[in-house]
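During the reporting period the student researcher (J.K.) took over the structure-prediction task from the postdoctoral fellow and processed the backlog of single-chain submissions. One of the processed entries is reproduced below for the supervisory committee.
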Amino acid sequence: MNSPRSQAVERGAAESPLSKSATKAKPASGKKSVERIDHEGLLDVRGLTTYFKLGVGDVRAVQDVSFVLKPGESLGLAGESGCGKTTAALSLLKLLPENGRIVSGDVLFDGKNLAKRTEYGMSKIRWKEISIIFQGAMNALNPVQETGKQIAEPIQLHEGLSEKQAMVRVRELYDLVGINPKRVMDFPHQLSGGMRQRAMIAMSLACNPKLVIGDEPTTALDVMVQAQILELIHRLRRELDLSFILISHDLSVMAETCDKGVVMYAGEVVESGTTADIFNNATHPYTTQLIKSFPNIHEKREMVRSIKGDPPNLINPPEGCYFCPRCDERVPECLTDHPTLTEVEPGHFVRCLLAKSMSSDAVAPDDEPTPEPVEV
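J.K. obtained the following structure tokens:
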């Protein structure tokens, strides 16, 4: 049974004048109907590659990223700062800065290829079908406009409502995310950090999208508020049957909220699978080190380990494996051969030359000698 809050969200959409007129509307004469593209899931990203143009060359920020998100499913994009996870998410909505461009790949969403759409075409998708919770609510919100009116803007634009009608919907959204509806006319600086983040979540839900992207939605919040925001996101996903992409450098957050995970390093996917696969059978050396860099209260008390070294220069990346200089498991081939994604078990993919052997080591005795590490 739907909760009163989720019923309010559905009622807000059902009572929209645009919703009633849209069912009666007929395609204008002379316009060609757009042919629907068959693809897997709600979102099917295939070989997405994004570069940033600088004076000294192109930064290969995202390279050959692929994943599938099904309706009602949640997926986490994880990795250290600069790995390309936010750029990948912004590429989905074509919100890149002027020097950024999608070089190749397809972003198939609900039968449409977003990578091929114009800016006007994307304006029909943003907020209405895909919305985003930006990192840092204070920077994302206009400091000189009432927060409620900022949330009302996409409702007026996409649903065709008057400001008065849109504000009724905003009050329902405030109640949905746990803010007193009386505060709709407060400015961003009058709200606490947690309340600003809740307001951003309310904005992301304003037009009843099918997919919500959360770009590190708990950054700069204290631990208690982080837990509240994550619980709110989990509840809204369940009540509204949302598909959700979470971007985070914190694997524990991904484990708490996501069904599937994609670990990125230097613009590439290095491991992907279910959350259980990644945490219980982490195979790529980067993933295992990333997990060890966070404390585990269920194991022996010891200092967490940092990952030595720095990520590679993506203007001129190395010939072999990008993680090779920082890897304790490297072999001579890692210096010259660039690995491809290998399926080590159904649905679990790893980008490592030793993926097959490391996966078998985890489930069977080692019959062959382990290759000796090589110095870089």
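The committee noted the following: The two ends are 60 Å apart (CA to CA).
J.K. will present the remaining backlog at the next meeting.
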